[in-house]
Amino acid sequence: MPWSVAPLRLGRSWVLAPDAASLTARWDRLLRTDDEADRTALFHPTRARTPHTAVAQLPGQPGATTRFARERGRCPQPVRIAHGPYDQQWLIPDHRLIDAARPELWRVADEHQIHLLEPAREAPPRAGQRGTRATPPGPPPTEAELSFAALLPDGHSPAGRPGRIRPLYRRPGAREPNVAPGLLAHLARRLGREVAADDLFAWIAAVARRGPGGATVVPLTASPELWEAGVALGRRRVWLHTRGARGGPAAGAPGAAAGAGGRPRLPGGQRPYVRAALTGRLAPDALGYDPEERALRLGNGRISPVAYAAWEYHSGGVRVLESWFERRATPGPAGTLDAIGPRDWPQEWTSDLLELITVLTLLAELREPTGQLRKELADGPLIAVGELTEAGVLPVPEAARRPASVLDHHEEGPEGQFALL
User: Fold this and answer.
1) Does residue 76 form part of some domain?
2) Which residue stretches of 286-366 are H helix?
């Protein structure tokens, strides 16, 4: 997957929130501020964006292109994005408010697209950092902590470190896979079966590991049977990461319960329920886990059963559930737009939390079959780099590392001008 994109750089945190209503309220608060100096301070200007910066329209979004200093309209409809590998938040899709929105990602974002998120090498956790332990459980050091998103991702880890985003398709409509030219055809010849781009994507999800220097390494098997097993396992992993939007579980697999509407569900008896309602504005230290009762406690609220594996699921050196909760329970600094948020715990946050617990539980169950697959892969026949070089797949042409030209829709330039792409 040679084409990769740097993560989004927002420049101001108030444009992102766990709920859409807070973003609309922040927008309205900013526009009600008459004093220009106060309004500029609330805007939080940077070198890339001030209220007077002229920028083009964000691809696929109806936002205005006049300078924000003259803005008097309503907040653009917030869109949901993937925030890190396991969270979903809301973003104001206005190019005037985002330092580096990565327009090339927005141009190819549609109902077919799926993104691979490749994290940067994480720094060792600081002593006393919440959500960390001296030796946090999670993927072994040799496993690449890849994640996958159907939503447009911001490309950051739970600890906030930037990674790389690799879309599966270079053009909308699932056209032109982001795959080294000739690779799919070569795999089809070697394996004796058709190999589609999403098959390769699933294979990567199943077997990718971290190599020397932190690079992501994808071994390629020459065994048709092992390939099929890896693709099936990878599709399930992708299905879980995308909350049922992409990939898919095998028939009868856990989590693919009838009536689930395509979204992951745990079987009866393992499914988490709210035993005591989550109410009020919870404090950042209100989260805890009772291993005897297998219960997640949030202030006076209580959810059970919650598998210990879900509670202990780590990513990037932090506990995923703690990181998710802290983003919702920690208020923004007083006097800033970030301080505007829900007064009570919204019901949709509880629904999101139940789904996240389900996803983490089911992902933890994939560790054993993943380990077995990798053992068989190491013992079986492989397609070597030299073979790919002889077949002309490697080295990858430089053009494949650059975004494709996408001219499928009109984009408005700064101050209403036409944009030339």
Assistant:
1) no
2) 308-311, 320-329, 347-364
- 202 domain-assigned: no
For residue 35, pLDDT beyond 80: yes
**Rounded to an integer, what distance in angstroms lies between the CA atom of residue 397 and that of residue 181?**
8
Q: Reply yes or no: is the peptide bond before residue 219 cis, omega within 30 of 0.
A: no
Residue 50: pLDDT above 90?
A: yes
Nearest to 86, CA basis, from 367, 370, 355 = 355
- The pLDDT score that the predictor gives to residue 250 is 60
Do residues 169 and 178 touch, judged by C-beta distance below 8 A? yes
The total number of structural domains in the chain stands at: 1
Is residue 126 pLDDT above 50, yes or no? no
Show the beta-strand stretches assigned E in 16-139.
Answer: 16-17, 79-83, 87-91, 115-118
From 64-73, 254-263, 295-304, the region with the lowest mean pLDDT: 254-263
Across 53-168, where does the E strand assignment appear? Answer: 79-83, 87-91, 115-118, 147-149, 164-167
C-beta of residue 97 within 8 angstroms of C-beta of residue 12: yes
Asked if 353 contacts 303 with a C-beta cutoff of 8 angstroms, the reply is: yes
Spatial distance between the Cα atoms of 332 and 342, rounded to a whole number of angstroms: 12
Would you say 234 and 203 are in contact if contact means Cβ atoms under 8 Å apart? yes
Is there a contact between 253 and 240 (Cβ–Cβ < 8 Å)? no
pLDDT digits (tens, 9 = 90+) for 150-192: 999 999 876 667 889 999 999 999 999 999 999 999 999 999 9
List the alpha helices (DSSP H) in 132-253. Answer: 183-191, 197-207, 224-241
Domain membership flag for residue 200: no
- CA 59 from chain center: how many Å? 20
Query: Is the omega angle on the peptide bond into residue 381 within 30 degrees of 0, that is, cis?
Result: no
Express each pLDDT in 76-121 by its tens digit.
999 999 999 999 999 999 999 999 999 999 999 999 999 999 987 6
For 282, the domain range is 266-330+344-365
Structural tokens at position 43: 């805007």
Per the omega criterion (within 30 degrees of 0), is the bond before 51 cis? no
Mean pLDDT over the full length of the chain: 90
The two structure tokens encoding residue 39 = 């309004």
